[in-house]
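Aim 2, interim progress: modelling of the 2'-monophosphoadenosine-5'-diphosphate-bound target.
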Amino acid sequence: MITGKTKIIGIFADPVEHTLSPSIHNEAFQYLGLNYCYVPFHVKKEYLKDAIFAIKALNIKGVNITVPHKEAVIKYLDEVSDEAKYIGAVNTILNNEETLKGFNTDAKGFVLSLKNEKILIKDKIFLVLGAGGAAKAIVYGILKEGGRVYIYNRTLAKAMAIKERFSNLGFIEVVSIIDKSVTEKVQTIVNATSLGLKKDDPMPLSPELLKSEHVYCDIVYPETHLMKEAEKIGCKVIGGTGMLLWQAVAAFEIWTGLQAPVEIMKKTLNKVLT
Ligand code: ATR
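Predicted structure of the complex, ligand included:
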């Protein structure tokens, strides 16, 4: 029940209708008997500054930040974690007595989604498709865990910028085309583009380049066309719900200081997806 003592958590996004985060977090709050409530806010670009100011004005305890605000939000915060600063994107904000601190739980979310499926990162070679906000967090996560990265993006300059940003963390190389000479070098392929979100999107990679030995990860959910193809080929497939779950777990712990009920969150996610 919402009372005068309820702590408000929000998500700022445009669009916001599709978000699954309110279900995941509200179920977790209820399970632990916490007087918190997670609310979606449709925040357009031109109101981002006002919305961030409102976190303090309305004493909102914390928010998730997602498309398209993850990078733009940084300039309005009082503090940013070293990791989020390094990645250049914030997806979680904590209001700690009117000090707004930004975090990035996407990198951790991606790494944990792989670890949870017993997929190794250290010394493994990855092909990352995409060079947007999500790709930055993923590349950072892989390099920090000791993996190596080949990165491809439609707009090559953005892939080059990611290489420059992270090259001191480990091996990262840009590829300008994807063919067998690339896919045969790598163990894991990650779609970090938005391709697959819309039903008629082309696939980010030709399935002919996949082999059963590949791990195929996608940040998009529910199951994409290429995920289905990869499964048919016999690849180990990790969908976008893994990253969604584990970034939520990390955000929950930042806001509440408590261990998140992972199994309840996972169950809720599966329920809302079916
Ligand atoms: P996010 O924060 O989810 O990563 P983003 O920053 O807008 O979103 O990044 C979207 C990614 O998907 C980019 O790598 C984009 O490629 P460009 O940098 O060339 O724009 C990629 N992407 C989107 N639509 C695409 C398409 N039709 N073909 C290829 N790549 C596409």
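The chain has two domains: 7-104+242-273, 108-238. Residues 138 and 232 are 25 Å apart (CA to CA).
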